[in-house]
Design a protein that fits this description.
32% of the residues lie in helices and 26% in strands. It is of the alpha/beta class. The chain is globular and about 65 Å long.
Length: 388
């Protein structure tokens, strides 16, 4: 992939873009395997990396608004003087057009971009979600509701010019922080969710839902986990219980329920909005999986102390901070034989594994979720070496 923004020096976010793609993947894989080598079980195997398209893959666009109401620019957060990056080649077809439509809306509605240094202005960021089917969700991050009437007045022109936009909302973010968005979402037009085909199921994303960056690679990731679950269930027989902790929109849980229909699948996630999306997806696919809005760590510890005890299988997909001492300690002492751990931060994965010496890696795969960057993800299959 080549990028004129990178070549001109306007944007250097893709820090590895000068390296040939095979070298990027090979070096990323080598770093992960070296980091996790102390935690391997005898005979553990690394399969080929999970790799997808190197351009046109980003499910989410997050652009900061700079310039003026008459001449807005969409650039990277924290780069008020940066070049307009609507034409980023990481975005799927159609996203650039929607971003240009958002700039036209800002001009028509005369919404001044937020000036970080002066703490003035109204519109902070423009966020776009793209589905593989070419549909888009547009979100405008505003400092207040002051400009909403003008936005509503001119929104029909945007929707007429860009029929791929199926939902528009305003996110109100009054705080002067580096956070991209706030807690208050105001629907302006369209559907409450967007179906994003990921692997073998559609995930129903609400405006503030987390989506994996690379939809194609995420689908492969969920399928790999489902394949391991199917193998484990075939070994165990019966109807084992499976907990998907930090389940988000239910990608792992839904694929597990699809691959192993006899398993009793429960997904747990702190975000009620994400749980609503997971339940919608389960209903749409007629899958037997239940989803609960709760703190994953507290729920797991409390549920395991009940009459049924801990489950037979656990999937964890924590945020970058990892599982943390409390959940890692519980898993270590839980007696659960099989754990699948999907990590977006291999360093915290290594820390967690050091806290769970009874659970050893039997298989793993490097996941190239962010091509052209040092960011690495990995999924590992763990098995208890001394079942309790």
């Amino acid at each position: 992939m080549r990028c004129h923004h990178f070549d001109s020096g306007a944007c250097r976010s893709c820090t590895l873009l000068d390296l040939p793609r095979p070298r990027q993947v090979a070096e990323g894989r080598a770093r992960i395997e070296q980091l996790l080598e102390p935690f391997l079980a005898p005979g553990a195997e690394w399969s080929a990396p999970l790799v997808g398209a190197e351009s046109g893959f980003r499910a989410r666009g997050k652009m900061a608004v700079a310039g003026t109401a008459q001449e807005p620019r969409l650039t990277l957060p924290g780069q008020a003087a940066g070049a307009d990056l609507c034409g980023c080649p990481l975005y799927p077809p159609g996203v650039e057009s929607v971003l240009e439509g958002a700039k036209a809306l800002i001009r028509r509605a005369q919404v001044p971009p937020y000036d970080v240094a002066r703490r003035r202005g109204e519109i902070k960021n423009v966020l776009v979600t793209a589905s593989p089917d070419g549909e888009h969700v547009l979100r405008l991050v505003l400092r207040s509701e002051k400009a909403l009437d003008r936005v509503r007045e001119h929104l029909p022109a945007l929707l007429a010019a860009h029929p791929s936009v199926v939902s528009v909302s305003a996110n109100i973010h009054p705080e002067h922080t580096t956070a991209v968005e706030g807690d208050h979402e105001i629907p302006l037009a369209g559907a409450a969710s967007i179906a994003v085909r990921t692997g073998d199921v559609p995930l129903f994303a609400r405006p503030r839902s987390f989506l994996q960056t690379h939809t194609e690679v995420a689908g492969q990731l969920y399928r790999q986990a489902a394949s391991w679950v199917a193998e484990i269930v075939a070994e165990q027989g019966g109807a084992p219980r499976l907990w998907d902790l930090y389940c988000g929109l239910g990608g792992f849980a839904l694929h597990a329920a699809l691959a192993a229909p006899t398993a009793q699948v429960t997904g747990v996630e702190v975000s009620p909005e994400a749980i609503d999306g997971a339940r919608e997806a389960a209903a749409a696919q007629h899958l037997e999986a239940r989803f609960l809005a709760a703190d994953a760590t507290s729920w797991a510890i409390e549920e395991a102390a009940g009459a049924e005890g801990p489950p037979e299988i656990v999937i964890v997909n924590p945020p970058r901070r990892g599982l943390g001492e409390r959940l890692a300690t519980w898993l270590e002492g839980s007696g659960v034989r099989d754990v699948l751990y999907s990590s977006c931060n291999p360093a915290t994965l290594a820390t967690d594994l050091a806290s769970m010496p009874s659970l050893r890696i039997t298989a793993g795969r490097f996941v190239d979720m962010f091509p052209h960057t040092q960011h690495a993800e990995v999924i590992v299959r763990l098995r208890r070496s001394d079942p309790t």
